[in-house]
Amino acid sequence: MRGALAIIGAGRVGRAFGRRLHELDWKIGAVITRSEASARKAVRFIGAGNARAKLTRDVLTSRLILIATPDDVVVKIAAELARIGAEELRGKVVLHTSGALNSRALNAARAYGAAVGSMHPLQSFSGVAIPPLEGNVFAIEGDPAAVRLARQIVRALGGLPVQIAGGSKVLYHTAAAFAAGHVLAMEETATRLLMLAGMKRGEAIRALLQLTRQVLENFERLGPRAAWTGPLARGDYGVVAAHLAAMKRLPREFSNAYAALNSLASLVLSSGSSGILTATNGDARNNIGLVKTLVKARTAGGKG
Question: Cα(80)–Cα(137) distance, rounded to whole angstroms?
C-alpha cells in the first residue's frame, strides 16, 4: 500500500507511525514539530520526510494528514490547518491519534471538505524503540472515507481495526487508563509493600510480575470470576481488615486505594451477573458494605 503522509507532532506516536508507514512504502512529506531540531530528529528516526518547525502549506502536498500532538492542541491544530488549507482540504483525510478525543475535534478541517477521523492504537509508546503493532487493537471512528483509510492503514500495520462510536471515545480511553497506568500504579504499590516486608526491589518485581501474569492468563482463559482470588473473593473479611491494619502507618492513599479496589472488585467480580453489576446485586452490595465498615474502623483506629 502506498500513499503520501504528512505528520504534525512527531513525538513518540507520530515517529512510530511515520517509520512503520515509511517501511510500507508510504511517501513521507512534511514532518512538523515545535522546533527545527526536534523535526530533524524525527525525520532521522522515521528515515524520510521534510523537517518543519511550524505548520505551512507544505502539509497540503500529502493526501493524508496525521495529527499526533497532545490532546490539548488538536483543536487548535485543526483550526490552523483550516486557515492555511481552506478549500484545498477537500478530498484529503485528516486523522488524529488521540485516545480521548473523537473526530469532532477536527471539525474545522471537516468544514472545508476534509474527511476526518481518529485512529488510536491501544499500545504504550516508550519513544526509545518502535513497539510491535502487530495484533494490537486500534480504535477508529469518524467520517466514512477517513474510517476506510484508517482501517487500511491498521491492517497494513498488522493491527486489528475496531470501529467505535465517537461519543464513546472517552469511555474507551478510560478503560485503557484502568488497564495500563492504573495497573502500573498498583504494581509499584505492591512492590513497595514487599520492600517494606524485607524483599529487595528486584525480588519484589520478579515475584509480582509472575503473580500478575498468572492472574491475567486465568482471566483470559477462565473469565473474570473464575480468575478472582484473594481474601475478598473467599469472603475472608478478617484478612481484609488485617491488610488495612498493616497499612495504618503508611500514607492514607494506600488504604484508600485498597478499600476502593475491594469495593470495585465486589461490584464487577461478584457472582450473579455478567459485565457491570447492578446496584440490586446482593453479593456485591453486602461486600461493599463490609469493606466500608472495615475502612471506617481503620480510620478510627489509626492515622495514615
Answer: 30
**Residue 247 shares a structural domain with residue 281:** yes
Assess whether 206 and 247 both reside in one domain.
Answer: no
Answer yes or no: is pLDDT of 27 > 70: yes
Q: What is the pLDDT of residue 281?
A: 45
What is residue 228's DSSP assignment? Answer: -
Q: 160, 135 in Cβ contact below 8 A?
A: yes
Please tell me the pTM assigned to this model. Answer: 0.85
Which grid coordinates are listed for 299?
480510620
Domain that holds residue 293: 228-304
Statement to judge: residues 155 and 189 lie in one domain = no
Q: Is there a single domain that holds both residue 76 and residue 201?
A: no
The answer to whether the beta carbons of residues 136 and 123 sit under 8 Å apart is yes
For residue 277, the tally of other CB atoms under 10 A from its CB is: 18
What is the total count of domains within the chain?
Answer: 3
Would you give the DSSP letter of residue 131? Answer: P
Are residues 84 and 185 located together in one domain of the fold?
Answer: no
Crossing angle (nearest 10°) for helices 237-246 and 252-269: 160
Phi, psi of 125 (to 5 degrees): -125, 120
- Tell me how crowded residue 215 is: count the other CB atoms within 10 A of its CB: 13
In the chain, % of residues over pLDDT 70: 87
Q: Are 88 and 60 in contact (CB under 8 A)?
A: yes
Please tell me whether residues 303 and 251 are part of one structural domain.
yes
Residue 253 banded pLDDT, cuts 50, 70, 90: very high
Instruction: Report the Cα 190 to chain-centroid distance in Å.
Output: 22
Contacts made by residues 182-190, CB under 8 angstroms, sequence distance 24+? 183/212, 186/257, 186/261, 187/212, 189/254, 189/257
Single residue among 207, 222, 237 that ends a domain in this structure? 222
Q: How confident is the model at residue 287 (pLDDT cuts 50, 70, 90)?
A: low
Q: Which residue, among 63, 121, 120, 118, has the nearest Cα to 95 in the 3D structure?
A: 118
